[in-house]
Amino acid sequence: MNTVWVRLNAVVFFGLTVLLGLALMTATSTYLHEGHPTVKTLRLNKIKSFRSQSKVDRAIINFDLEADLAPAFNWNIKQIFVFVVAEFATKTNPLNQIILWDKIIEKPEDARLNLKKMHVKYGLIDQREELKGTDVTLHLYWDHMPLTGRLYTHSVAEDTFTLPMEYIRPGQQV
Amino acid sequence: MEELVNKVAELKMLWKHKRHLAFRCLNVAMIGLSALMLWKSLMVVTRSESPVVVVLSGSMEPAFQRGDILFLSNHDAPLRVGEVVVYKVANKDIPIVHRIMKVHEKPDGSVEVLTKGDANRYDDTGIYAPGQKWLKREDILGRARGALRYVGMVTIYLNDYPKLKYVLLGIMGIFVLTSKDS
User: Fold this and answer.
1) Residue B98 among the catalytic residues
2) Residue A151 domain boundaries
3) Which residues cross the membrane (chain B) (predicted)?
4) B179 is catalytic
5) pLDDT, tens digit only, all 182 positions of chain B
């Protein structure tokens, strides 16, 4: 330890090793955390419009969501990314999953969601024109994004509704 | 400064004793090749051609910031909505980290997916190749499984100032070649 370089070398590499150790400890400290968020309701409120646009079927809906995601938080969570997914099967595609609405939650205080008649952010769009009379299931997903560590997503399936057999123009009664 | 003159003098002496120099070079090669072996093993275990990527843009903020490192895995499980994936647009070198917004799976198991950055207003259709509306399984380098913060800033600096790469490697090379065995 008699030259600047040797000392610098020792400090830098020991520092990096310590940082790596701390990162590993952070990641493992919350590895087994389960947390049990509750989803009280997720259901269709109203189909606002359902028609064909540019050769593809497109449905816009309102939904109700009541959920408490605060238990999903731990000290190692940077944000929870919540999203509502519409899942359905068509003749061409046996499985379709579309995110209709999403939200970033950064604090457990903001994690109690109580949304009524919430308008979707993104339309329920098929690749063809095969949505008439199709059953759609709404799922709630929440993605845990850590400070340091693994990413994981949990989800729960809630309501199923059927799209009408005829197109609906916006403003038309269902 | 004196250290530098010493190092240069040592290097000159090394050049006179070729066998010693060869031994030193072998040491450097061992370190380099061990690192390469580790990287290739990681590629095999994760089935990804790029098991570790650096986040280059702020399109996934606040979850991932520029300079964060993501660990990927690319196992055969089918692509599903909500997964954070890394993909490359055809002919471009930059890996993009975004979330899958739409999944359309065909009867044969193949998928067409649409991605979007969490912090972006619009989906990635504008980023794909002209005329391309969907990504396929082959475009995806892997799913993000874990994150490590800030460490990737080193890679970003090295890419922004390429001369830094050579300077750094040069210094490291000189130190390993001339370190005393005591």
Assistant:
1) yes
2) 33-162
3) 21-39
4) no
5) 677 777 777 777 777 778 888 888 888 889 889 999 999 999 999 988 889 999 988 899 888 999 999 999 998 889 999 999 999 887 788 889 999 999 999 999 899 999 999 999 898 998 898 888 999 998 999 999 999 988 888 888 888 888 888 888 887 777 766 666 53
Residue among B124, B139, B160, B179 flagged as catalytic: B124
Q: Are residues A104 and A62 in the same domain?
A: yes
Chain A interface residues (partner B, CB cutoff 8 A)? 3-5, 23, 27, 78-79, 81, 83, 85, 92-99, 102, 104, 106, 122, 125, 127, 141, 143, 145-151, 153, 155
Chain B residue numbers touching A81 (CB-CB < 8 A): 63, 82, 99, 118
Number of domains in chain A: 2
**ipTM value of the model?**
0.87
Q: Tell me the pTM.
A: 0.84
A106 found inside a domain: yes
How far apart (Å, rounded) are the C-alpha atoms in residues A108 and A138?
24
Q: What is the largest CA-CA distance in chain A?
A: 85
- CB-based contacts of A123: which residues, under 8 Å, 6+ apart? A58, A59, A60, A100
CA distance B140 to A151: 18
**Distance (Å, rounded) from C-alpha A138 to C-alpha B10?**
71
Q: Cβ B82–A83 below 8 Å, yes or no?
A: yes
